[in-house]
Design brief:
Length: about 325
């Protein structure tokens, strides 16, 4: 059963507005057309309407029902620029600087549309780096005070896999924080767990991963994990979480019985929290490429509104999956 595809049906039940700022990219246009035709979300593309229409016509893509927003003539343009200026004027920028930022880098435009409630979320990254998307999100949206840090996660699904939730996992952080502190690692774990539950309604079973299992090695990284675990348990005592665990102990029941038989998470984890960005990013790409997994993300988290990054090598189907996940995350907000 493909739980990622099931999200498409969930999205249809409460349609949300998603803005895609890279409106001239044919992958983005094709994804917007598909999402709209299938009734999964209301999609707006940012960019010059003539340019978008030209790309769509050249690639035989229907734009029926897709919203086209020209940032230069949009009737809420001044409100978007003025609000961004108010948010950033303490950094010494002028109103002209704000206008240049928002209209020349449309990821900021999309982020401000989301902040103002014009859209429920945004997805970018097909033509921008993760740092570009993260910077716009952090500057334009509000921080989730409980989580306290901005990070990212991937939804991973493997066919014919008995581990995790029958092949379904959340991985965090795979895109934002290179070397998380104790506080940041705790925020990553809480945010990733919440995202997994929000999307699928499945109880998270969270493993804080390491090269060590339950004291088998001593190192500063292990100490950071244990301090983060203590912080999480005080903040979220109901969350099913354990660590530090090696990957095999976290997901393979036979190994868990040998290494940590008293753990309620070991051998059953469906949410994997990595100790640093090297481990998280490498692991998701190994799983995706060698394991032929479906990977959705990076899904930005720790903010008050949903937004998502894309790999610059994404397919149009990847854009669909990520936009749908963003729409579902917006439900109920």
């Amino acid at each position: 059963m493909n739980r990622i595809l099931i999200l498409r049906e969930k999205a249809k039940k409460e349609k949300k507005k998603v803005v895609l700022p890279e409106g001239k990219d044919k992958r983005i246009i094709r994804a917007a057309s598909f999402i709209t035709a299938e009734g999964m979300a209301e999609v707006s593309l940012l960019g010059g309407k003539d340019e978008i229409n030209k790309v769509a016509e050249e690639n035989n893509i229907s734009l029926d029902g897709v919203g086209l927003v020209d940032p230069l003539t949009y009737d809420k343009r001044d409100e978007i620029i003025d609000t961004y200026f108010e948010l950033r004027k303490h950094k010494g920028i002028t109103r002209e600087d704000a206008e240049k930022t928002v209209t020349e880098n449309l990821v900021y435009y999309a982020a401000m549309m989301t902040r103002l409630g014009i859209a429920d979320g945004f997805v970018a990254g097909a033509c921008h780096t993760t740092s570009d998307v993260a910077r716009a999100a952090i500057q334009c949206l509000k921080l989730d005070k409980e989580v306290g840090t901005v990070s990212s996660s991937f939804i991973i699904e493997l066919d014919d896999c008995p581990f995790g939730e029958n092949g379904l996992f959340a991985y965090g952080d795979c895109g934002i924080i290179p070397y998380p502190s104790t506080r940041q690692l705790a925020g990553i774990a809480i945010a990733t767990s919440d995202l997994f539950h929000k999307l699928f309604g499945i109880e998270p079973r969270v493993a804080m991963l390491s090269y060590s299992t339950k004291g088998s090695a001593k190192a500063e990284s292990v100490h950071t994990i244990l301090e983060a675990l203590d912080r999480i348990k005080r903040k979220r005592p109901e969350l099913m979480i354990d660590g530090e665990l090696q990957l095999d102990a976290a997901i393979i029941p036979e190994v868990a019985r040998l290494k940590c038989p008293d753990s309620e998470v070991a051998g059953r984890a469906n949410v994997l929290i990595f100790p640093n960005l090297d481990a998280g990013n490498i692991s998701y790409k190994l799983t995706q490429r060698l394991g032929k997994a479906r990977a959705v993300g990076p899904l930005m988290q720790g903010l008050d509104r949903p937004c998502s990054d894309l790999s610059r090598g994404c397919s149009w189907e990847d854009v669909v999956d990520t936009a749908v996940a963003t729409a579902v995350r917006a439900q109920g907000l």
